[in-house]
Amino acid sequence: MVPAPNAATVTTEVTVDSPFLPADDGFHAPPDDNPYWAETTWWSFNVPERKVGGWLHATFNTNRGTVTWRVYVWDPTGARPDDLRYFRMASDVPMGDPLADLRDITIPGDGFSVRMLQPMRDYRIEYQDPAADFAVALTFAGVHDPRRCTPGEPPFMEHTHFDQVGHVTGELILDGEPIAIDCYSVRDRSWAPRGAPRRANPAGGATTTAARVRVPVGPVWRQIERERGRGRIQYIFGHADDQTGFLAFVRAQDGEATGWSPLNHGWLLRDGRFELLDKNASRMKNYRDPATGWSAHMDVQLTDVTGRCMTAEGFTVSHICERGGGSTALMRWEFDGRIGWGEDQDIWNPKHFARMLDALQAVR
């Protein structure tokens, strides 16, 4: 399946400053027949008073003509899928209509709907599960144009990816109870090969922690966290409103033995002005819960390319752990005398995470 009629094309060299076009919210013509070519759409929201976080996410494998989607809501009552306030996932659902428009779509298999209201800015997202007394209806009002991550740099070696913060309003029906939504949160999109099995190193690769860590010193659990070649991704953001906040990707693999890790993509928002982060001057230090290994508390030092600085301190208030390694957490942030809300997406290979947790909990 190749959804060509509304597919976006790129005709000039793309840099971090290249603007996105309205067509970039539609499907893109795959460059080849790679079955792992994927398009994603992701929408997040939160209800701070309830310590509730929520996602609506879909991955379209357009060359295979299938979509996998999931909707979930979490709070402190439980983090595993069976314990969440709501969790539903449908895998490899046939997409059906080859001319589907991602800017006006209801995802097959009783999935959620996305409707563009204003190109690259405003959207309506809706989902209902009457059998579970669950529904969510969101209006996302973007407060800026989507911002691009630097092409060809980790973690986006092949991906085209953008992030956008918006004012999210609407209503959540949770176990039949209506709950108002009024927050600032993020949506993102990416399109590229995604999810293919990792290629084996013909030489066998590094077999010890020391061989995988650039500077093998410091606590053992932090050394394991810094191992290269494990697919580690960490993504943090928090916003108080449309004037103040930040978003960043963390490079744990390039971190120091002291626990500070550089931030290599993202923005600083202050006084309503977005600026790219200075990748050489922005960093994060994470403190993990010794019982779960999940993020518990973090310090963030941000500097943008114009020299503006911000420090942020964050605490996790609830988690979801979908695949057994790391978690996504709802975060309460303090910065510039403000309180903001957002997420920490701490993504691990489960086996790698288990080794780190063993080291974190070691008693001898």
Q: Characteristics of this structure?
A:
364 residues, mainly beta, AttH-like fold, 2 domains, eleven-stranded antiparallel β-sheet, eight-stranded antiparallel barrel, 48% strand
What does this structure look like?
- It comes from [Mycobacterium] nativiensis.
- This is Tyrosine-protein kinase JAK3.
- InterPro entries: DUF7064, DUF7065.
- By secondary structure, this protein is mainly beta.
- The chain folds into 2 domains: 172 residues, AttH-like domain (AttH-like fold, Beta Barrel), CATH 2.40.370; 152 residues, Beta Barrel (AttH-like fold).
- Helices cover 6% and strands 48% of the residues.
- It contains 3 helices and 20 strands.
- Strands 1, 2, 3, 4, 5, 6, 7, 8, 9, 10 and 11 form an 11-stranded antiparallel sheet that branches.
- A hairpin with a 5-residue loop joins strand 18 and strand 19.
- The longest helix has 11 residues.
- It is globular, with a radius of gyration of 20 Å.
- The N terminus is likely disordered.
